Amino acid sequence: MKTLIAIPCMDVMETAFQECLTPLVSRYSPEEVEVMYLKASLVYDARNQIASYVLKEGGYDFVLWLDSDMTFEPDLLDRLIEDIDGRQAVTGLCFGRRPPFKPCIYNRLEVEQNGKMILPHADNWFDYPRDTLFEVEGCGFACLLMRVEVLEAMGIYGVPFFPVAGLGEDLTFCWRARKLDIRFHCDSRLKIGHIMRISVDEKFRDQLFAGQ
Length: 212
Known about the structure:
The chain is α+β, with helices and mostly antiparallel strands. 27% of the residues lie in helices and 32% in strands. It has six helices and 13 strands. The strands form three sheets. The protein has a seven-stranded mixed beta sheet with strand order 2-1-3-10-5-11-8, with helices on both faces.
């Protein structure tokens, strides 16, 4: 099996991210894992270019989407590959890096069209199941392992990453994918940090809002 670690980025590559990525990649041979960085001013443009490369080049079984401001353990890919057995896409537990540090998983994801108005509904899943693997309606792509077959199926929409009004490219992807019966899961045992001045993870958030 071969995995492309796909890293869309802007101008900044966090040192802490590289410190996490290097030991992860060192666990594999070049025949098993490749890393691709793609700089673009629009993240969805970078994701579309990466998706196009994967489908054109061939030879990949999985894409691990990683944002360049995340922290994670060296065994992240091992655990995601174990999780994805029988599934199509699995994310770790990520949080936004701004208060109130919302979990980047959703238990409601709908797009309503009222005449010419497009009304998205995306509810963060605050009371998510702890330390287990479970299905979500949608998720961010900061840390997500996906089968290449998912990108192939999404070709029906043209470019797979293109946001509708009010939703980012990742949630739009999830909303469209679910119409094709593509399912997303989260492993809340995989604690992913989001870099600001500190690493925001589940433990930090629980301590911050203790007693509320």
